[in-house]
């Protein structure tokens, strides 16, 4: 017997607030039965080998350019270790509709699983193409739901429910230049390092729309970018991870999304090896929430990145919008790694373009890192900026339509305003120091200027440090964790304005 749950959301343009209820995918299955499985930690202590060690094993093979199959209303399963349920290879095409897929059995080598899809429930390889609808994919013992590997490999999945337990069991997963497209997807994973939608080396191309995702394990982000992530109309809750991990020169684009993170930061962009240039994040008509008391909205380490925020809300319990640091994250994705963990890091260099946003929080740079904060098109920022440790660099730019409400003493490398006007800076009694030796500040002529609100803009004194009015805790505070249900939230009028009619399906699943 099958059950189709359909939720239609209507957002009228004249409403200021619209409240909707979304069913959490974690409420559909009794996840308590997988507690032991989810307690297993991912083990990457294996010799790195960048080729497939042995031929893929599967209970069902679809192989060759002459192979094209259409299958519906069946169940496929596999129980052996290092074994796929379905392998589609060498140019084959497979269409599945109303199909159950169940996978148990462990992976003996998580690098082989990550790079080649060994032990995944569904593995699409070497230029093959699949079109799936109304799947129910359940995996245990650390098996990914679906993996697309190789140039020309393409997986399209819609109206489907994905569940996994155990370590490194991603939902929709692409690597080796493979592509996966998901629409109307519900996903839940309980293990560690189990992102809902992920790319892997050297690149995976992942496009997701109209999806609901809930991850519970440490390091299990809603999105993991190695390649390109494109997401539209996605609700994501990562209880013990950021909404996004982005490693190196990757691109992530989020439109009309509501993403919540419970550990480290709202988004984490870093380079796991040498510092890379060209990382990009674009967030439009969306909301990003960081729950922990020390979590910034956006975090950067050992990377050169550009961010575009358009009509987007960032909520943080920490009052920290942005952190840039000489740092990265550990292999377990459970804390930030510093110099003792890796002495070959470089400071983060970040440019953040803020368009039609109203944001609140601090900008903090550490250890030689830099933040370039550019506000335009009627943006408002309530916050201050300073160096958390060492000599770091923060630059602020405002156009004539944007407003900065200063919330604490601030030290800048550069300050740029339209027509050299300071009228749109409300100091609230706080002072702003600037680098008088910077050519970008030559328009200030090394002078001290009174600001609206009683504060002053003045040249920095050599060796000057900023005493902030807001205490920032650097110890590992207990993260704020909401109740299991994350189904209710409010949407401002300016949020998801284009979604006058959204259809989110909580999908056909059957027993």
UniProtKB/TrEMBL annotation:
The keyword Transmembrane is annotated on this UniProt entry: yes
**Which InterPro entries does the record associate with it?**
Autotransporter_pectin_lyase_C
UniProt entry keywords in alphabetical sequence: Membrane, Signal, Transmembrane, Transmembrane helix
Q: Which residues form the signal peptide?
A: 1-18
Task: Give the stretches traversing the membrane.
Answer: 488-510
**Would you say which domain of life the source belongs to?**
Eukaryota
Q: What is this protein called?
A: Uncharacterized protein
């Amino acid at each position: 017997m099958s059950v189709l749950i359909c939720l239609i959301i209507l957002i009228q343009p004249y409403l200021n607030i619209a409240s909707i209820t979304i069913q959490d995918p974690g409420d559909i299955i009794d996840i308590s039965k997988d507690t032991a499985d989810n307690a297993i930690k991912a083990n990457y202590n294996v010799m790195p080998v960048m080729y497939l060690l042995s031929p893929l094993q599967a209970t069902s093979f679809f192989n060759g350019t002459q192979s094209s199959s259409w299958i519906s209303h069946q169940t496929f399963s596999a129980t052996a270790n290092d074994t796929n349920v379905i392998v589609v290879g060498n140019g084959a095409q497979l269409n599945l509709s109303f199909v159950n897929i169940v996978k148990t059995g462990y992976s003996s080598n998580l690098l082989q699983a990550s790079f080649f899809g060994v032990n995944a429930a569904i593995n699409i390889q070497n230029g093959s193409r699949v079109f799936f609808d109304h799947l129910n994919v359940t995996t245990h013992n650390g098996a990914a739901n679906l993996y697309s590997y190789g140039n020309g490999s393409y997986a399209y999945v819609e109206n489907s429910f994905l569940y996994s337990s155990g370590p490194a069991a991603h939902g929709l997963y692409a690597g080796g230049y493979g592509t996966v497209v998901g629409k109307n997807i519900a996903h839940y994973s309980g293990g560690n390092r189990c992102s809902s939608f992920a790319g892997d080396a050297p690149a995976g191309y992942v496009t997701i729309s109209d999806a609901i995702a809930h991850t519970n394990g440490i390091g299990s982000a809603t999105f993991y970018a190695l390649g390109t992530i494109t997401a539209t109309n996605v609700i994501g809750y990562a209880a013990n991870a950021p909404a996004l991990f982005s490693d190196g020169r990757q691109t992530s684009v989020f439109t009309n999304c509501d993403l919540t993170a419970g550990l480290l930061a709202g988004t984490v962009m870093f380079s796991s090896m040498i510092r890379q240039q060209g990382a990009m994040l674009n967030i439009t008509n969306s909301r990003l929430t960081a729950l922990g008391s020390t979590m910034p909205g956006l975090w950067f380490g050992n990377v050169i990145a550009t961010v575009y925020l358009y009509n987007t809300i960032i909520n943080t319990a920490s009052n920290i919008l942005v952190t840039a640091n000489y740092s990265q994250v550990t292999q377990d994705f459970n804390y930030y790694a510093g110099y003792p963990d890796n002495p070959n890091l470089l400071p983060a260099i970040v440019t953040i373009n803020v368009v039609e946003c109203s944001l609140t929080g601090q900008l903090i740079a550490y250890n030689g890192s830099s933040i370039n904060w550019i506000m335009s098109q009627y943006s408002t920022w309530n916050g201050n900026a300073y160096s958390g440790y060492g000599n770091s660099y923060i630059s602020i730019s405002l156009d004539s339509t944007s407003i900065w409400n200063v919330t604490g003493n601030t030290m800048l490398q550069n300050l740029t305003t339209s027509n050299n006007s300071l009228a749109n800076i409300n100091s609230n009694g706080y002072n702003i120091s600037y680098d008088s030796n910077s050519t970008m500040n030559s328009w200030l002529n090394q002078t001290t200027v009174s600001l609206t609100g009683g504060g002053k803009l003045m040249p920095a004194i050599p060796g000057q440090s900023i005493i902030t009015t807001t205490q920032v805790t650097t110890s590992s505070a207990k993260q704020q964790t909401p109740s299991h249900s994350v189904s209710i939230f409010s949407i401002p009028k300016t949020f998801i304005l284009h979604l006058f009619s959204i259809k989110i399906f909580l999908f056909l699943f059957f027993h």
